[in-house]
Specification:
The structure holds two protein chains of two kinds. Helices cover 79% and strands 0% of the residues of chain A. Chain A has twelve helices and no strands. Chain A has helices at residues 2-49, 52-56, 74-104, 109-122, 126-141, 146-171, 174-182, 187-198, 200-216, 219-224, 242-250, 255-288. Chain B folds into two domains: 2-50; 61-321, MetI-like (MetI-like fold). Classes of the chains: A mainly alpha, B mainly alpha. At the A-B interface, helix 1, helix 3, helix 4, helix 5 and helix 6 of A face helix 2, helix 4, helix 5, helix 6 and helix 7 of B.
Chain lengths: 289, 322
């Protein structure tokens, strides 16, 4: 009698065990479904709209009834390169030097406060950053500009670069620093010629991830860069960018433009996911060792 | 005598540092690091001063009134705050259980060979630009949702439950936005839960196994309680991300600053209201109200993230200490 109860309870426990384990597998599969669906859909729609024209022409006015191809997205590609490139130029020195400070001069009140600020910045909604750039630059100058967008992107990039730089510099063995100091090298020389070169690939990883994040950002650009249908190299006027174009063209009633939006989205996904996959493949095995 | 030596040696040390340039290097590094603090300070100062008009005009009532009418100059943020919080909570309701389950799977069940590719795929969800989520939401998910979920639901339980009542033909609405946000915050929750589950000491698992527990019982009674605070922290971080997410919400939520009982009706979030209206704001009061809204949004996310960090920090500290 008692044995039967024990047996029944045991069977129930085994059943619950099996059920829950199957559920975790199921949850993982369910979560990967959207990724697959999104990637397949973007590829399907995006590859179809890719062409030489798409990459080398700018916006062409279209109207209902005509079979115009609607031109291309060259202006958006140029805009993205200029805006994110300029942002990278500003963010890299700030991010790396802040990371150097946090890792090479740790343990004081200043570094704790700075680390806290980096944390707050990295969790800041991108639209709030965009609003700040809007008030600070667009409202003052009374013109939307690629420059304001770059400034907003700098704020989003700096915490990523700072954090990876700090983490990577900490992995550089203390003995390397001591060896350099024992040879009589001052700290700045040790840091610049021994520590930073050893950590260079890791820092490059952080910079790439920051670039990927910024290239896909739309919200801060929406309120600062505005968008532009013409090819322009002027950083101080309204520009176009790939994510911005994808958003604007999606809201248009023309299927030609919707198709181009998917083309732009495909380019973005290829750039952003390409960088992320590359970075992960390069860095994964090292962190395990 | 003694003080003289120490003062002397300090002078020598300072001289040596100046000579070698260490002091200069320290100052340069500190200046760049302080620049990060300045960036944050600038954001707070700018949103504070930029919202001065709206703060003087509406004060605290801004947070509790529902009228949002740029033409008559009436601005109340309650619909936007309601939409932000409700869509984020819906996202959390979907993403939290799934994220924790993924973390359990990757941490204690997944074959070692599959662990890296599956972990990487989940993390890639976080890398997809949010505008792509928005586009996918508009072209694929909303049509699917309207024909298979919202229409049947509103026809059956909709008449009894106002939460699921129609009309559903717009397609864009709170629930759709919540689900898209759930996909976006899933990797955050999964990654943090995985990290805190990984620091559960093996002695805890072994003690449970020694008592004859099944695998699930080890997870349920040893791992999850130990990592609870960190998992909740991961959920709060995900919540913080959902609260501030802009583009995907803007594209699928419908941008209508009204409070509806039904989750199928268009609504708005703070971030999407700012993104859709700030570039076209004609009056100073309008833009000032939107900047005020940005300030409120920043404070909400700051609170969510601070709680999250405190929780995660507590687990990783006790975890490494145990």
């Amino acid at each position: 009698m008692a044995q039967a109860i024990v047996g029944r309870r045991y069977r129930r426990r085994v059943l619950v065990n099996r059920l829950m384990l199957v559920l975790t597998v199921l949850a993982t599969v369910i979560s990967l479904v959207p990724l697959v669906l999104i990637l397949v859909y973007v590829a399907e729609q995006g590859i179809g709209s890719l062409s030489i024209d798409f990459l080398t022409h700018t916006f062409r006015p279209i109207s209902f009834g005509t079979t115009s191809t609607g031109g291309g997205v060259l202006h958006a590609i140029v805009g993205t390169v200029i805006i994110t490139g300029f942002a990278l130029l500003l963010a890299v020195p700030i991010g790396i030097m802040a990371g150097v400070y946090l890792s090479e001069y740790p343990g004081n009140a200043a570094s704790t406060a700075i680390r806290f600020c980096v944390d707050v910045l990295s969790a800041m909604p991108s639209i709030v950053v965009g609003v700040t750039a809007y008030v600070l630059i667009v409202q003052r100058v009374k013109s939307f500009s690629g420059f304001a967008g770059s400034v907003a992107l700098v704020v989003l990039m700096v915490p990523i670069i700072t954090r990876t730089t700090e983490e990577i510099l900490r992995l550089v063995p203390q003995t390397s620093r001591e060896a350099a100091i024992a040879l009589g090298a001052p700290k700045w020389r040790t840091t610049l010629t021994i520590v930073l070169p050893m950590a260079l690939s890791g820092i490059a990883t952080g910079v790439l991830l920051a670039f990927a994040r910024a290239a896909g950002e739309t919200a801060p650009l929406l309120v600062t860069v505005l968008g532009n249908n013409n090819l322009t190299y002027d950083l101080f006027g309204p520009m176009q960018a790939l994510p911005l174009l994808a958003y604007r063209y999606t809201e248009q009633p023309y299927t030609v433009l919707n198709q181009q939006a998917w083309g732009a989205a495909f380019l973005l996904v290829v750039i952003v996911l390409g960088i992320n996959i590359l970075v992960r493949i390069v860095t994964r095995p090292r962190s395990h060792r | 005598m003694r003080t003289e030596i120490s003062a002397d040696s300090r002078r020598i040390r300072l001289g040596r540092q100046l000579q070698h340039g260490d002091l200069i290097f320290w100052i340069v590094a500190l200046l760049f690091a302080v620049l990060v603090v300045v960036l944050l300070g600038a954001i707070i100062a700018v949103t504070w001063s930029g919202s001065a008009d709206a703060r003087h005009a509406f004060g605290w009532h801004f947070l509790t009134t529902t009228a949002w009418n740029p033409v008559s100059g009436q601005f109340g943020a309650l619909p936007a705050i309601y939409g932000t919080i409700v869509s984020s909570i819906i996202a959390l309701l979907f993403a939290a259980p799934l994220g924790v389950m993924i973390a359990i799977f990757l941490n204690s069940l997944c074959p070692a060979k599959l662990r890296m590719p599956i972990g990487m795929m989940v993390e890639l969800l976080a890398a997809i630009p949010s505008v792509v989520y928005g586009m996918w939401g508009i072209f694929v998910f909303i049509p699917f949702f309207r024909s298979y979920i919202s229409t049947p639901l509103s026809k059956t339980v909709g008449s009894a439950l106002p939460l699921f009542s129609g009309p559903v033909n717009v397609g864009r609405g709170l629930l759709v936005a919540g689900i898209i946000l759930a996909i976006m915050i899933l990797p955050t929750i999964a990654a943090i839960s995985r990290d805190v589950l990984a620091v559960v000491p093996n002695s805890q698992r072994e003690a449970m196994l020694a008592l004859g527990a099944t695998r699930w019982e080890v997870i349920r009674h040893a791992e999850l309680p130990y990592a609870r605070a960190g998992i909740v922290g991961g959920m709060m971080l995900g919540l913080g991300r959902a609260l501030g997410e802009t583009m995907a919400a803007t594209m699928v939520i419908g941008n209508t600053p009204k409070i509806h009982a039904s989750l199928f009706q268009p609504a708005t979030t703070a971030a999407s209201l700012i993104a859709s209206q700030l570039p076209n704001a004609n009056t100073d009061l309008h833009s000032s109200a939107l900047i005020y809204l940005a300030l409120v949004l920043f404070l909400i996310t700051l609170v969510a993230n601070s709680i999250a960090r405190a929780l995660v920090w507590r687990v990783s500290r006790t975890g490494s200490g145990a």
